[in-house]
Amino acid sequence: MTELAPQELRILVAVAECGGFSAAGAALGLTQSAVSHAVRGSEAKIGAVLFERGRSGARPTPAGERAVGLARRILRLYEALGAEARAAGRAVAGPGGDAAEPAGTVRIAAFRSAALHLLPPALERLAARHPGIRPEVRVVRELGAGTAGEVAAGRADLAIATLGGSDGVAAGLLSGLLVEEAYALVHPVGHPDPKALPLLDWDENCGSSTREWWRRQDWIPAATVKAEDDGMVLTMVGRGLGMAIMPELSLREAGAAVQITGLGLERPVRRVGYVTTPESASTLVVRALIRELRASVS
Questions:
Q1: Sequence-ordered strand ranges (E) for the chain
Q2: Do 231 and 259 belong to one domain?
Q3: 158 beta partners
Q4: pLDDT mean over 224-250
Q5: What are phi and psi for residue 102, nearest 5 degrees?
Q6: Residue 8 shares a structural domain with residue 92
Q7: Do both 187 and 257 map to the same domain?
Q8: What's the pTM value of the predicted model, to 2 decimals?
């Protein structure tokens, strides 16, 4: 297969993100015909159809989704090449010389409670040690592909994700454990029988190990009340609308109207860690971020 040039990769990404050839051309300063010609050439080189064409635009095929994700990651490496080379050039060579100082943008995807409570101390340390690093944080719901999917798709350099699910980390990605947090029973303060209350839940609270534990508990009601996120669950618990089973990171927002009760030695545990790609893991900025994440939870 003939290799794709950087501009061809940029066109594939633009078509996927803009939803069509004309819109991608406008974003890149190219004509629609130039974009169409480039995509056809890329498909010929790869040997697969990358986009479904229609009146409403262009949508990536499964092969296109994979190609676009890898294209984003390759383009990100082009950016890292310049930043890493400049950092090495500024370093003092020879024994005892200064190490290369990481600089540039690092893109982070995190689920809500991690973005609120796990990331800030790590980013504070990162800013103090490496002021040339510019973090960009996006909050992503931990559903479907979740935060790790943002890394696989090339939209993030590193994700804070729940680990140990039934699907595991996607092939080709690297992960590392940061913290294990126990779940607890959360209920209105002073309620005489909190286990008799309706169960409040949210879609992201769906780790396989947690669900297996739930199925073994005969006191948990079958019917549940679903909220948008863990913050809403805590608010509803505080207003006496039900009880919930929540992990420690979420409970850092618990107010005075909420009581937290342990679930015993057999309680479920959520494993939270980072996910990145092998190529990102070798860059100075991601290595620095991982160090500060580990230091902030140690």
A1: 51-54, 57-60, 104-110, 133-139, 158-163, 174-188, 199-202, 224-227, 243-247, 258-261, 269-276
A2: yes
A3: 108, 276
A4: 89
A5: -65, 140
A6: yes
A7: yes
A8: 0.85
Give how many domains the chain has, as a whole number.
3
pLDDT band at 240 (very low <50, low <70, confident <90, very high): very high
Judged by average pLDDT, the poorest of 167-171, 213-217, 280-284 is 167-171
| Spatial separation of the C-alpha atoms in residues 61 and 48, rounded to whole Å | 9
**Percentage of the chain lying above the pLDDT 70 cut:** 92
Distance CA 16, CA 13 (A): 5
Q: What CATH code is carried by the domain that includes residue 286? A: 3.40.190.10
pLDDT, tens digit, 9 for 90 and up, residues 82-137: 878 887 777 654 444 456 788 899 999 999 999 999 999 999 999 999 999 999 99
Task: Residue 106: name the closest of 134, 128, 80, 127 by CA.
Answer: 134
What's the CA gap between 232 and 113, in Å, rounded? 12
What is the extent of the structural domain holding 149? 97-179+272-297
Q: In whole angstroms, how far apart are CA 208 and each of 2, 167, 271?
A: 43, 9, 11
In the numeric block, the tokens 């790609």 are attached to 277
| ∠ Cα 180 233 124 (to 5°) | 50
Distance between CA 35 and CA 62 in Å, rounded?
20
Distance CA 127, CA 194 (A): 44
Whether 67 and 102 share a structural domain: no
